[in-house]
Design brief:
Elements: H1 2-11, H2 15-23, H3 25-33, H4 42-74, H5 80-95, H6 97-102, H7 115-120, H8 131-142, H9 148-162
Helix pairs in contact: 1-4, 2-3, 4-5, 5-9, 8-9
């Protein structure tokens, strides 16, 4: 419930962002991509909360967060609310990129052990996720969205996975 009613409404593209997008898209981009003054912006604070949850409680939150994101990404995007929800789900997917890469067996380097698992001494998780499938099912179609802000967020997610 915290995710659905507390975090997600702050992360997704809201009415204020939509108005700014229509009036001055460059200013919205500056706000979305700026790391400054994150304490006074609920959007940035919600993203930081998700990052902290993934950092300290990833075993408990990663898969439910992924399922929640997939639910919104699979929804038909006919309305402005659906576009906003899809953009919010893409934000969550981008925030999970580092942790999802760890669950993809095809991302292991030669020798079968990931560098992060070696450092932390973790065993390989039993749950697996295909990054290629996630990108093909959710991110690539979002690049063709009729909403420009969804396309922008899809590029941001692609960059998050490319950094991994």
């Amino acid at each position: 419930e915290l995710l659905q009613f507390g975090i997600f409404p702050q992360i997704r593209f809201g009415d204020v962002e939509m108005q700014l997008w229509q009036l001055d898209p460059e200013e919205l981009l500056r706000e979305l991509l700026s790391d400054c003054d994150s304490d006074s912006r609920p959007h940035q604070a919600a993203m930081e909360l998700v990052e902290k949850l993934l950092l300290y409680r990833h075993k408990e939150v990663l898969l439910p967060l992924l399922q929640f994101s997939q639910l919104h990404l699979e929804a038909a995007d006919q309305s402005d609310l659906a576009h906003a929800n899809k953009e919010g789900a893409l934000v969550l997917l981008g925030l999970m990129a580092d942790h999802l890469v760890d669950l993809d067996p095809t991302q292991l380097p030669e020798g079968g052990e990931g560098k992060k698992q070696k450092k932390k001494g973790r065993n390989r998780p039993s749950q697996t996720v295909s990054i290629e499938e996630l990108l093909a099912r959710f991110v690539l179609p979002a690049l063709a969205s009729s909403a420009a802000f969804v396309r922008l967020r899809a590029l941001w997610v692609s960059a998050a996975f490319a950094r991994q």
